[in-house]
Amino acid sequence: EDQVTQSPEALRLQEGESSSLNCSYTVSGLRGLFWYRQDPGKGPEFLFTLYSAGEEKEKERLKATLTKKESFLHITAPKPEDSATYLCAVPETSGSRLTFGEGTQLTVNP
Amino acid sequence: DGGITQSPKYLFRKEGQNVTLSCEQNLNHDAMYWYRQDPGQGLRLIYYSQIVNDFQKGDIAEGYSVSREKKESFPLTVTSAQKNPTAFYLCASRVQGYTGELFFGEGSRLTVL
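^ Those are the sequences you sent over. The predicted structure of the assembly is below.
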């Protein structure tokens, strides 16, 4: 069964304090891993797609990396506006559905 | 601008009433999805459709129904058979046959009084 596990469930940082979020997965034949940002009361906003181990993508203070078993979302010198829930997802073996993790709720204090 | 429009944003319903949530997209996507999100939980798939006039049950389809008469539209009906319907509902779409990312609407929050 395809599974996606995110850790930690919640993370509280001070502004400027860098850290990483983890997304571990078990799926047969990875066809991509997606990161989303979700603000309270809003739909998830797409951030990155990673397709192969070793791949990295960056956007402002965020960098996503991928290994054969997990992905990390590194946040460098975060700001309060980076506060959100970050979700990761992988396509199921059939390819037609995505399996989502339960998310990491990030709070960045000024 | 292309995107996914969900309406209404907030909806209140009395127990025993059916309610329909609207989802319209102008992205020319073939596949559309409905998810439910409860506080502190991830997204759970209710129904999805990969082509007009065809749809499949997701993991929590009981008490819900859908239709796909047009490519652009995928309405979700929450029936009185759904035992705990209060939740945040999200509609999404993507290109069929492509294992790429989903694009989401802004969500509809349903509260049962």
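The CA atoms of residues 32 and 93 of chain B lie 4 Å apart. The first strand of chain B starts at residue 4 and ends at 7.

Shout if you want it in another format.
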